[in-house]
Batch of 3 targets.
Target 1
Amino acid sequence: MGPDKKRLVLVVDDEPDLVAVLSQRIGKGGFSVATAADGEEGLAKTRALHPDVIVLDVAMPKVDGWRFCQRIRRDPALKDTPILILTAWLTNDLKRRAEAAGAARILLKPFDENEVLETLRRICPASKEV
């Protein structure tokens, strides 16, 4: 990857206001951002764009976050893509389910925008020094 190529984050969430705020903050944090309004669109964009990391809501129409993770993890070209799950409700069962789904990290909504950026920098493979 060239020094001026930004890492791509795909934000998949059905809350337009959250997507707008999060996309703006992630973009200002040095990433390129693509968005999807539901899991089905998110899967299509993931396959087309091969993002460096995915920010994913759990409760979405068409394809929920759990089925989204299952489908990504079954695709050899995408299975190692880090996924950051954002959720409005967090229980121990949800944490276990997120780990089982292959999520790199889970954060609770409402979230701290700086914590999201720091998490993205940690889990995005291109952010690691070689």
Note: The mean pLDDT is 89.
Target 2
Amino acid sequence: MRVIKGDRSVEIEAPIERCYEIAADVESATEWQGSLKDVEVLERDGERRPLLVETESDAKVKSVRAVLRFSYEPPTAIRWVQEKGDSKSLTGSWAFEDLGGGRTRATYALEADPGRMLGLLLRGPAESKVRDFLLGDAAAGLKQKAES
């Protein structure tokens, strides 16, 4: 099975600080990121931000669990890497670009190696549907939340 990867950018009518703040509030992401079903913070950093988080996501073909380690670069980036989970590997990020005039470009990126078992469920057209669902859902959700 090959690696599933991609990114999705949206332009948001909100300042970069607001977009970053929403994305960095990992515990509330289930409210606006439809594929994310559950978030449990296992460890926090010195600034009380979620550092180690267990998640459950709807990957269309199966619910997928992962323990993710987050890092923060306010207000331009948030990154995460899977420490353990149903996928063989998973990394992701948010990148934020100030467009001026209170507008922001937000880019959500994922790279996952589903591994052999999960990979069997993601053959052919299912792979692109899952990728589009995961990427588009997060980007559109952030835009909607930031502009509301």
Note: The longest strand covers residues 89-100.
Target 3
Amino acid sequence: MTATPKWYMPVVVVALLWNLLGCFAYLSDVMLSADALAAMPDAQRAIYEARPIWAVSATAIAVWGGALGCIGLLLKKSWANPALIASLVGIVVQDLNLFVLTDAAAQAGGAAYGLQGMVLIVGIALVVLGRRAVREGWIAS
């Protein structure tokens, strides 16, 4: 293996923290209490209740795959790449539901576009980083 650049580990640690925040948000979402759901405004509750299971599953794959992939990058393991690719696929499927098949993002407001745009960019960047890490010999191939 080739020596990794000095920026590699700090970038991967930040990416792992980002994905762990996503895991926390996912768990908070799926473990929402009945009282918290009842306290939501009607429009927000309708969006929450209308989500198909495949979209919620895509979110799980996105956040857990991203976290696992970042752990793989930290450990310098090539299995990081399939996990990061699965995460990116999960992001795309989640976005398909949010932006194409429903108007959930529009109902959620402009912040949804910005946040999901950033999630997609980070997902793409991590796949690129993982592939580069293998190509450059920073992680085992």
Note: The two ends are 9 Å apart (CA to CA).
